[in-house]
Amino acid sequence: MISTVALEVTDDQGRPVKASTKMGQRISGASDLEEVTAADLIAEAVAWRVRKATAASVVNDTIDRIQDTLPGLAGDERALRVIERSVSQLASRQRTAG
Description:
The chain is 51% helix and 9% strand. By secondary structure, it is mostly helical. The protein has one domain (2-93). It is flat.
């Protein structure tokens, strides 16, 4: 989903079109990628019978690892910028402990 948002989508006339951040499935009720919080990810995991403390640990650790890895990562700059922005927003919205 994140890499799709980073694509330079154009219409049939070659004009830029903003990629949608709407997801086909909800994450704890959220349907827009830009509205998903760490708490949403944790709540979704809990709904799938993962212990809250485990879910919080995995979500927060994953956010930290992505943020630590991004600065030295090679790849498509557009995709990396979208990932960096998305993870930064996710981290700043809410850090949740189990």
